[in-house]
Amino acid sequence: MNQSPITRALFDDVMTPNYAPAAIVPVCGEGSRLWDQEGRDYIDFAGGIAVTVLGHAHPKLVAALTEQGQKLWHVSNVLVNEPALKLARRLCELTFAERVFFANSGAEANEAALKLARKYATDHGGPDKREIIAFTPSFHGRTLFTVTVGGQAKYTEGFEPLPPGITHVPFNDLPALAAVISDRTCAVIVEPVLGESGVVSATQEFLEGVRALCDQHRALLIFDEVQTGNGRTGHLYAYMGYGVTPDILTTAKGLGGGFPISAMLTTSTIAASLTVGSHGTTYGGNPLACAVAGAALELLADPALLAGVRHKHERFLAGLHRINQRFKVFRELRGKGLLLGCELTEAWHGRSRDFIKAALEEGLLVLVAGPDVVRLAPSLIIPDELIEAGLQRFEQAIARLVSETAPVNQEVVDAR
């Protein structure tokens, strides 16, 4: 039987319509470049939404996957496996953690963290200590529990009734947290840098204050480092740069360099509440994922690589400032390491996706972080020459976008 060609149009015929993917179909990647079905190349500043921290098809990750794929793929958690134990031990060596739980996605890791916080509070604080406090705007995943904790109506509408016992206060607003936290609070969950919600960094004073309030009220502090972890901010985990240690940390995205894996890290005392049978996952900690993540972690923990992230941050900022001097489209450039946000000026509010489309047409992949922010999350080892080449393509995309918006922005075009 003849099969129709695999094209973008096939998506509309066979996939659920909850995504709106671009018109291209990538078929190959190497480092910080992708190629589509037509052979056109793209410089990747998106990193699969901060996932491909070591680029596409990194030889050490390919080797780890190939070697493990010839040995053992899956045994479930009725048995242990060597790659999972090695990875867990290494995560404990490199962080505050003493115990690790593996899952497959950031949402699953956050789900485990939130369930553990409630279970620990029940064990040590009684049945009334169950409130979870989160910050708006934030994003913690797409399960019903995590999307409720995220607190954004656009992700919860139509899925009610939502899990109760969750309170929201504004991000970076310590007095607002102090006004609502109490001895009934079992946990506070926070992203050190808001990823999906605009690439906004927590202030030092805010995170230190959150830690102090949690200690005062015997509440667990959960850091959602799904996007900020694994070298993304120039530290292995963002908490290290802040010098504020959480009780529970979640990590995913870059942990496997593109292979699906996540982890929840915590102390042995807190982990003790996850008794046998209280939580689990079929695929979490599978040998394939853990072997790849183990290889990735060894590369990501290299101080030279982390220093390189901080260097590349400055190179990106310099280039973005140069572009903005010409076009004046960005109100603010912000972020840490290679998680960067370009907030659009008021005249361009609501049009971040126009920048994504224009960049794609110039052979560049970038992201949004809400309707008003363009987000960059490239490989942590992207070569400097590709940074410059990608920024040139970004500049060309913005130039065309600005020219197409005349006469509103004609004065900008004329000023070139």
From TrEMBL:
Q: Which UniProt keywords apply?
A: Amino-acid biosynthesis, Aminotransferase, Arginine biosynthesis, Cytoplasm, Pyridoxal phosphate, Transferase
Q: How is the cofactor bound?
A: Binds 1 pyridoxal phosphate per subunit.
Q: Which GO terms describe its molecular function?
A: identical protein binding; N2-acetyl-L-ornithine:2-oxoglutarate 5-aminotransferase activity; pyridoxal phosphate binding
InterPro entries the UniProt entry points to: Ac/SucOrn_transaminase_bac, AcOrn/SuccOrn_fam, Aminotrans_3, Aminotrans_3_PPA_site, Class-III_PLP-dep_AT, PyrdxlP-dep_Trfase, PyrdxlP-dep_Trfase_major, PyrdxlP-dep_Trfase_small
Kindly give the SUPFAM superfamilies that the UniProt entry links to this protein: PLP-dependent transferases
> Which superkingdom is the protein from?
Bacteria
Q: What class of enzyme is it?
A: transferase
Q: Where does N(2)-acetyl-L-ornithine bind?
A: R142, T281
Record family assignment: Belongs to the class-III pyridoxal-phosphate-dependent aminotransferase family. ArgD subfamily.
Name of the protein in its database record: Acetylornithine aminotransferase
Which organism is the protein's source?
Candidatus Competibacter denitrificans Run_A_D11
